[in-house]
Queue: 4 jobs
Job 1
Amino acid sequence: MGNKLIAETFGTAILVLFGCGAAVIGGAEIGFTGISLAFGLAIVAAAYGIGAISGAHLNPAVSLGMVAAGRMSVAEFAGYAVAQVIGATLGAGILYLVASGTAAWTGGLGTNGYGAGYLGEYSATAALVFEFVMTFIFVTVILGATGAGASAGFAGLAIGLTLTAIHLVGINVTGVSVNPARSIGPALFVGGTALAQLWLFIAAPLAGGAVAGLVYKIGLTRAD
């Protein structure tokens, strides 16, 4: 179990550092498409790099979906979730040290948000619906791509491309979380509104992941 937790910590740090780093350091040059690819490619790298160790969940919503699907114990979920939050915080901390090294830095770390002053200024309801639905889709793809009958060796690519597509659709809505750990790490350093709105980016993805796992467990999205 120790190696699994280390892998989850390392992998989640990579996700935050690459994805949020693309937004903070290169966002003006690469735009939403580049940021979307950074998040997706980070998942691909982690999936093939540490997937054999821990499954490369990198996301409490994914781990909770595994619990609901009957593929992981509650005790394992707790360990994974703690490791993922630690990893996201480490990734955000590294990004903070790098980004703050220039006078051009505005103080952002790729935090998620909604409402007035945040990107497309979508409402809390829109953000809640988006995060729930997209996490449901994301976890459903993960369960299917790693389940019985899936094409061997392609799970990481399918999962990474799905996360890329989700970002292409939703960066302007919430910055895209679908991952409580990814939201917690940067918010801890930025504080303020990012922390005040953090509840949504914990609750909605966890609910979406849990429902995806339950739907999978009863067989509606599972290959039998």
Job 2
Amino acid sequence: MSGGSYYVPASSKWPILACIGLGAMMLGTGLVLVYGRAGMPVMLVGLAGIVLVMALWFRDVVLESRQGLYDNQMDRSFRWGMGWFIFSEVMFFAAFFGTLFYVRTFALPWLDGEGAKGVAALLWPDFNASWPLLEPPGDNVQGPSATLSPWHLPLVNTLILVGSSITLTVAHEGLKEGHRRVVRHWLGLTVLLGICFIAIQGVEYREAYLHYGITLQAGIYGATFFLLTGFHGAHVIIGSVILMVMLVRVYRGHFAPDNQFGFEAAAWYWHFVDVVWIGLFLFVYVF
């Protein structure tokens, strides 16, 4: 691997198995949307297949790294790959934020008679545009009775995630300096904060559903609320699992001050998730 050589990984079965699992999950999702719970087994089998493939695939990558098979070229490949992955995640959430922006800035005013497309107001002449939209146009959709206060559970979760970025940064700096005890303690605290966030969001969802009538069927407000916060919550769960794996690897003596991109990539992902939440807190809860 010296002298400018190029590392070529061994033939792998994981890409094709990942495609099969992803296809099964998408097929099952389509069946659920059309036939309801009848498609759930196919979707769950596909999801389980993807999780299993990812676990085994990453295991192989860790083993190859521990065997010293990777060089600087592979390190650059991993960094570019993670960078493009996070960029794709940025575009993923940009689509949802764009939906929220479009509805609030264009669609609702048009339905209220404003702008060049205000003729849409003829459909519901008594509709008054406002956000949060508690009274959707038409009698077939029931809006929520109220909205969640941003200064209670959402604020607590914001402080938790911001704090988790700080604790993770301390752990990362400790790893760069070779202080493994610092890494274990602060990374463990980061994982704990992530679990707390997920638990609090579960409490918030229960409160929203039972006491405020905020559901996926509660008009555009309920749909965008759960679309944005739900996908973000899924990313927090994924990020917490990744950090747990990093914690296990730290306890096993993996990583070195000059060879720790696996940890660094996990930190990039977690910081990205934290930044997304700040945007959610501001544009979903506050404004």
Job 3
Amino acid sequence: MKGQRTERLIRITSKFLSSPSCQISLTGLADEFGVSKTVISDDVSMVNDALTREGYGRLIVDRGRTGGAFFVPALSSERREEFLKNVAKILSAPSRLLPGGLIYYADILFNPVYTDVLGLAFASDFKDLHPSLIMTSEVKGIPLGLATARALGVPLAVCRFRNRASDGPAVCVHYPTQSGEVRSMYMGTKILSPDDKVLLIDDFMHGGSTAAGMVQVVNEFRAELVGMGVFIAVDEPEEKAVSEYKALLKLSLHGGERVSLF
């Protein structure tokens, strides 16, 4: 009996972790494992206690007619600070500094060991805004946006800098860069709708022109912008092309520690 429950707890945990922010029927679980709903409820409570102690999220149970539960990914403040300080230390290595106030971080964003947790950090920051869609821009924003979208259980829309026939019909917006150059950004008409509540995720913000371009895309589709998250924001210029955003890390161009918590 003990062995059966241990296996059941592992399988239940696996189901919730593989489908974050998606409701799972407790009645369905009871039928699948051949136990009562009361037993499943006890199991879910035990799983929730363990996940909460680990600091990566919690289970929420709907006591209504549906009788379901879903896993809400979220980083505890302790886990968040420890993780971001470690990433900041890695990125502060002198060898990562690039000309033009840039820093090399592609190996971080294309490594799921890091991006999965960064997605959890953004999900923790914006889950109460209940976005229906995550928007980012190519290329390095894609893994970060996808990790956030997975944690929140919503789709990802990618703004592209050139149109692709495989994306179908697209809307084009033009936005100015810091240098005064005017660039184009495309969004497929089949991806975004006026009913969407959009959360923007950007990998790097210097002057904020790319983020401002994505805001234009949201406005063009008459969707609702609910928030903006940035992986790394440069401290200069202080005034960005967008005014409201939440960054995880800050890159200082002069003196002191190069990368730190925002």
Job 4
Amino acid sequence: MTGELANLRDYLTHYRETLERKCAGLTPEQMATRSVPPSSMSLLGLVRHLARVEHFWFQRALVEVEDDRIYDDGDAGFAVVEPTEAAVTEAWAAWREQVALADAWLDGQRDGGLGRVVTFRQGTETSSIRDILLHMVEEYARHCGHADLLRECIDGVTGE
């Protein structure tokens, strides 16, 4: 597939896969290792945060689902991380569910609809679908950079 939507989806997919690669092979303790104090950022926190971001933009803003925000811990998913297999499994499951829901929504979109403006946050904000997708790419790109630095601190692994 070609076109603007396909291009945006390719970038989004690339960064989602990058996040998974950055976290591959780590123990729960390593996933929960925090970055430089006082930051609460960890790889596990990033997975939770990006599940939250996927949920907000695709489910709440674009699909207009009125459910509660996920990982509403006061720190956008970063704060409450436990170095347990259960916590890691739950975070990945939530993230994968949100990615699948987002992809299902994207499957129904076409290039011509990218300029459509949606209203969200109880009618107080608007954005085009294009801008939301660009924001998602930017969000992942920024956090994949964080993930790269976190992973390097944990075990020295660097690269894409």
